[in-house]
Each structure stands twice: as C-alpha cells, then as structure tokens.
C-alpha cells in the first residue's frame, strides 16, 4: 500500500515553477522590462524628479488598491472609492476653512470615510445586495454630497506646513514621504491576506461563499470589515490628494476607481474572486504608472495613454481566461487519448511469434 499522501496540483510542481510560472511573476517581469526600456530610450526618465512625480501620482492608487485587492478576491467590488476620496477632500477643506486644524479635520474626514465604507458593507454583507449595484449608487451619492457641500468652488488656503509635508521627500532622496504610510499599510494588508486565518477566509469566500460559511468563516463580517477598511483608506488617499495639490474640490479624483480596478486586475487578481496576490497588484500599479509617465515624457496625449493601458488590461484578462481554458482542455485530451481503444497504450500486447 502506497504511503504517498495527496497533494494539490499546484504544489506538485517544483518550487521554481510555483514562483516564476505565475501571472504575478509575469507582471513583475513586464514591469522591469518597461522600466529598463524607459531608462534607455525615454529622455529624462532617469531624472530624480521623474521618480518623485511618478510615486506621487500613483500613491493614491497604491493605497486604495490594498483593500480593493481583498474585496475583489472575495468576489465583490467597490466602485465608490473615488467618490469617497472626493468627499473626504471636501470635508477636510470645509472644516479647515471654518478654522479647524488640519490634523483634526483629517481625523473627521477619516471617520466620514469609515461611515461610507460601513454603509457599503451593511448593504452588501448584511442586506445581501449586489456590490456592483450598491457601489454604483453610493458612487453617485457620495459624489453628489461632496459637490453639494462645496458647489463649484474650491478651498485652497491650506497651511503651508501640511502641503509641504504632502509633497516632501524622505531626506535627500526622491522618494515621497507618503511612501512611509503606504509601506506600513502594505505590510499590514500583506500579513492580513497571506499570513492570517482572516486572509484564508477571504480566499474561501471568493472560491465559494456558501462552503466558506459552513467551514466557519463569518462571510458577512469579513465583507463588512473589508468595505469599511476600503472607506478609511480611500479617505486617507483623499487627504493626501487634497494636500498634495493644495485644493479641495467636489470633483477631485473623478475616474480614479477605474485606474485602481485596472491595476488590481492587471496584477493577477481574478474578477471572479478566489485568486490574487498583493505583490502582483503593486507591480500592476507601478507598471501603469511607468507607462503613463514614459508616454507623458514622450509627448503622447492622455487619450492615447488610456488606450494603451486599456488594451494592456484587456490582454491580461483574456490571457488569463485563455490559459485557464487551455489548462482544462489539455488534460482532457490527454485522458481521452489514453483511454482510446485504438491507442497503443491500451491495445493488448501481441503474443510472441504471432
């Protein structure tokens, strides 16, 4: 009797294949290739200001992509993140204009973001409404409240100390200070998703929420927590966005949710849930940022940049579906060939001398 235990198909492969033959590894390799090409062929791409502005541009996307990754892994989606960015920006601006210090106004903005996320979480997790419909509705709701509070005006009188902090760098380097809170959040979300029972529950929900429920995962609470975290992180991104540009407006970050979702999907997260890793998502964000920065330095218009990024996203989604189809198709064909009565593998051996 064989003592060899069963193993999952993925773990039956050599370690190098499990590390390198993945979508995440492909995105990282493509990102490095694009960076290398840009350094050699794009004028001024290797300048210190390029790195600073690149990281500042993608910082809000990097921040929001952290909770968005976990949400999409569960099979849900949050389209209201950019509206929460705009609403938190307006709250910060209105309160500061009324005399409240920036730290206290920022704290209130974070609470507002948490409330927005809790509203999404309650409707999706406990009421059972589809996340796509709910967050489309709250997208319009939060944006409408933001524009209603401030109208078409903008608050621009922020304390120079705080705007300098949002645009400052770490020492003499070109790395913006916002990368410090991002790094802390990235570590926290990585531990949460990849090294905790909560994270295993997130994957279980994405694969089969009903089965996850029967194995002891609190599906509703998990979704509620993730959507609340999404609201808080989006509000923090809104505070950074406001202080970086020194302007609080109701239409700040319009369309940002599409860039976040594009980066998450490009980074290897399945839109159907159950699959994805944070390092792939972060590489996807950097890839989009590098492409946009390089094309901007080459004088390419924003519309062309969006077309290129859109085609890249479609290619990544199609390639993932195609590879999954091939992985299912090839074993079936091999199985049919091995059981075919006419095949040499199943034909009785001829007797010697006949």
UniProtKB/TrEMBL annotation:
It is found in: Cell membrane. Residues 335-347 have a biased composition (Polar residues). One of its GO terms (cellular component) is plasma membrane. It comes from the Bacteria. Its main location: membrane. InterPro entries: ABC_transp_permease (IPR001851). Keywords: Cell inner membrane, Cell membrane, Membrane, Transmembrane, Transmembrane helix, Transport. Pfam families: BPD_transp_2. The chain crosses the membrane at residues 20-41, 53-72, 79-98, 104-125, 132-155, 175-195, 224-243, 255-273, 278-295, 307-326. GO terms for molecular function: transmembrane transporter activity. CDD domains: TM_PBP1_transp_AraH_like. Residues 335-354 are annotated as: Disordered. It is a multi-pass membrane protein. PANTHER family: ABC TRANSPORTER PERMEASE PROTEIN YPHD-RELATED-RELATED (PTHR32196), AUTOINDUCER 2 IMPORT SYSTEM PERMEASE PROTEIN LSRD (PTHR32196:SF71). This is Autoinducer 2 import system permease protein LsrD. It comes from Cellulomonas aerilata. The lineage of its organism: Bacteria, Bacillati, Actinomycetota, Actinomycetes, Micrococcales.
